[in-house]
Amino acid sequence: MCRLLRCKTQALPIVDRYRVEQDKYAVVKNKKRVSEYGEVFTAEREVKSMCDLIPADVWKNIDSTFLEPSCGNGNFLVEIFSRKLTRCRTTDEALRALKGIYAVDLLPDNIAESRNRLYGMFSSVYGESDTAAKILSTNIVCGNTLTGKRADGTPIEFLVKD
Ligand SMILES: C[S@@+](CC[C@H](N)C(=O)[O-])C[C@H]1O[C@@H](n2cnc3c(N)ncnc32)[C@H](O)[C@@H]1O
């Protein structure tokens, strides 16, 4: 998604490019989703401020574990992975960092967007990776955090670190 958006952005005239950037950071997709799912995303500035409240030691450890129980389109996931990536020097380290991120959301499009954003971040530095894609498809899950189940009724299970 990130990479697609970047390509699209480069090809657009200035006015449209501004609109795409605005859409990218919109905190609301539409009113129906707000009333039905409480879907209001956290803006980047607030995400960063909240992450700054977490002790620095947590960010120094690429194996630190995070669970986002209602991840939306991934605003917190992107910031978490971005901070982890600054500590990674190899593909293996980046995969380890990715493995410590777990998330759930009720809505399939949010899950697709979250996975795509994280995959775009990984692949832009370390290249395409089936392992990264597998981690994301297993650990960024469409389901209901309150019941612990996916839409098909099966339990939400994560790929835990070795
Ligand atoms: C207020 S938004 C926050 C999204 C994200 N955490 C952020 O701060 O940008 C709430 C999200 O929770 C999801 N949601 C609502 N009820 C849920 C549930 N029972 N289990 C998982 N996700 C849920 C919605 O689809 C929506 O994306």
Describe the structure.
With 162 residues, the chain is an alpha/beta fold. It has one domain. Helix content is 56%, strand content 9%. The chain is built from nine helices and four strands; from the N terminus they run H-H-H-H-H-E-H-H-E-H-H-E-E. It has helices at residues 2-11, 14-24, 31-37, 44-52, 56-60, 75-85, 91-99, 108-126, 130-139, and strands at 66-68, 101-105, 140-144, 149-150. It has a four-stranded mixed beta sheet. A hairpin with a 4-residue loop joins strand 3 and strand 4. Helix 1 (2-11) runs antiparallel to helix 2 (14-24). The longest helix has 19 residues, at 108-126. It is globular and about 45 Å long. The chain starts with a helix and ends in a 12-residue tail after the last strand. Mean pLDDT is 87; it is low at 1-22. S-adenosylmethionine (SAM) is lined by residues 37-42, 70-72, 75-76, 104-107, 110, 144-146.
List the helices and strands and how they pair.
Elements: H1 2-11, H2 14-24, H3 31-37, H4 44-52, H5 56-60, E1 66-68, H6 75-85, H7 91-99, E2 101-105, H8 108-126, H9 130-139, E3 140-144, E4 149-150
Helix pairs in contact: 1-2, 4-6, 6-8, 8-9
The chain binds S-adenosylmethionine.
S-adenosylmethionine (SAM) binds next to helix 6 and strand 2.
